[in-house]
Please model this.
Amino acid sequence: MDKKGIQRGGGKRLQHIKYFVPRGRRVNYKLRSSNLELITIIECISADGTALSPGFIFAGSQVPADMYKDIDPQVVVGHSPNGWTEGFLCVEWFRRCFLPQATARRETDALLLLILDGHNSHITPELRQLAIENNVHLFLLQPHTTHRLQPLNIGIFSHIQNAWIKRCNQYYSRSLGREMSCGQLTCEYLALHQHVLKSSLIRKAWQQSGITSGTWSADFFSEEDFALSYTTSAVAHVPSTYPKIDAIVALTEAQSETPGHLSDTAYLPSRSPTPTPSRLQRSLSRHEKVLRLQEENARLRKKNQLLLGRAENALAHASIAKWELERIQEEMNRKTSSNKKRRKVHTTAALITAGEGAAQCEREEIKAIEKEAQRQAEQARRAEEDRNCQIHRERITCDCGVTFSGTLSRKVKDDLKDIAFSLGLSLDGTNSELVTQITGHLRAHAAQYSTHPKFSALYSAGNGLLCSQKCPLPPELDNENSPPPASRCRARTGWS
Model:
């Protein structure tokens, strides 16, 4: 069993298909979809040359039920937020798809063996327990070996991908560009599944993996398979103005091929009989030209040496900077992109339903249960602390003898939350955000809180708040641009 992702529109590989069209046709367009939505397909093949009905996982929160009314009930359709598989979906596929079909094809009471990779959704306790109850062994392939041991990866998925691209191309030609719905995608893939997964192809894939060949050995892997892997996505991205190393190298090679010295006699005229006066004048003028050319040559040679030195310096700096960027990119690739807690079992054993693998899985499950209990206890402790803090803040708000004072920027977060709670403000945010929120509220309601015994001490220069408030102007002086009233006494100017 393994999973494969397909795109609803066929993917970008449709753009690389070439077509022959008549020369006289003016408009040459090919309809295709730009929809790159990912759909996960769960495939399972047997060593006897048969294949189980596939499972589909769509992205979204729900899937319309009437869209699949004409589909075989053995086909399992699910959904996840991003269209990827999850532990719950894998368990449901095993219960609703694998067990009924595999049990119906079972000819003896022998145990069934399901080979899959070590993805975390395949090692859940629920799936392992369900497999043990139904006499199914789960065998996990070792990491980094599925490209040589997984029959689906070796000889099935490449044929499915090529057939899916052709299928999408034909569909959009028939539908004149109409988008493919979820129900149509399921029907198209089921038709493709029946056409591509022939018994001969499935048997050949098992034979190429070496599992059913009867001659499998450790020599199946070459020395290259055990070589160190190269870091991917380590290309250094630099600005467009960054020196191009290839251009600098080409310039250096061109300069090295240029003759370093030009002979002083290269431009001298050849020997000739005694010139006439007119020839003498022409010879003098030629000699002056040679001198000028030699001076120009010396100047250009000196400039060339200067530019060559700058190019070598730029090459050295560019190489060092690029190596540094690649090193930083490699370190970034090694970091985990997510710290999300997942319930999974870590195991290095291959068979996880019996023997050493089952015992190791049980130990891991016990550790996971203990860790979950510790997490719940920590959550309960934090909830109790939050309730105590809430009671404490309510008591401070009602107690008139408690006053707030001091500089807000020097207070710890709990003290800032106490002040914000007493003012009826939000308790979310960093210390600086809480200080800004409190000072803004106190400034906006200065008339109310500047004389309040609980908050009056906060109106200080350290908090950016004035201790005293300006007295309001009389009504007749409220507008500074209006002339004074006639009854107002004016100050006399000049001498009486």
Observations:
- Strands lie at 2-7, 38-43, 55-59, 76-80, 112-116, 136-140.
- Residues 257-272, 337-343, 488-496 have pLDDT under 50 and may be disordered.
